[in-house]
Amino acid sequence: MLNHILTGEYLGLTGARINGAEMLACGLATHFVPSTCLASLERELWKTNSVNPAVASAVLDVFAQEVSTREESAYRRLDIINKCFSKNTVEEILSTLQQAVKGDEWILTAINSMKSASPTSLKISLKSIREGRNQDVSQCLIREFRMACHAFRGTVNGDAFEGARTVSLDKNKKPKVALGDLPMLFSLFASCLTIITSIFYLVDH
């Protein structure tokens, strides 16, 4: 079976949305229950009056259905996701995606999404995702909260405010930031991580 672990990078860097079938495909879900059955499922779960996960799973098994991803779904190309998003840097990921396009619409969408995002945010997100693999959920949530706080305080730059402004006010998704020039931002990114990591350490100790 293909390794699904690198879908975190794909979702985190492209902002791609996934449906129920895709959540099953990448391991984010254990069961697929149609919305028409949710009320019945809820009633049966209440009847069990149990907090035992095995009991809940048995009830879910009764209502769960097998479902396949759509033909155009990126999750039918997990080998490409793993190949491209296993690279060490955002620049390398973009470069590998561009080499793999071959008319695949989902790859073009991924490339365009990354190119329209803040380079600083992409780099921070990539590092956060990979550090999170060695942490529990509590640690990840704390880190994400602190990252968000620093982003909206403008600790490094005003990309977060500018992105929010273009989506909420201008509604044109055309932020006035230097997009696409990832190599030039490497030093800024390194400084950003140093600042944020230092603050995280001071707060925790």
Automatic annotation (TrEMBL):
The chain crosses the membrane at residues 182-203. One of its GO terms (biological process) is L-valine catabolic process. Pathway: Amino-acid degradation; L-valine degradation. It catalyses: 3-hydroxy-2-methylpropanoyl-CoA + H2O = 3-hydroxy-2-methylpropanoate + CoA + H(+). Its EC number is 3.1.2.4. It is an enzyme of class 3 (hydrolase). Keywords: Hydrolase, Membrane, Transmembrane, Transmembrane helix. InterPro entries: ClpP/crotonase-like_dom_sf (IPR029045), ECH_dom (IPR045004), HIBYL-CoA-H (IPR032259). GO terms for molecular function: 3-hydroxyisobutyryl-CoA hydrolase activity. Residues 7-176 form the Enoyl-CoA hydratase/isomerase domain. Pfam families: ECH_2 (PF16113). The keyword Kinase does not apply. Belongs to the enoyl-CoA hydratase/isomerase family. Hydrolyzes 3-hydroxyisobutyryl-CoA (HIBYL-CoA), a saline catabolite. Has high activity toward isobutyryl-CoA. Could be an isobutyryl-CoA dehydrogenase that functions in valine catabolism. This is 3-hydroxyisobutyryl-CoA hydrolase.
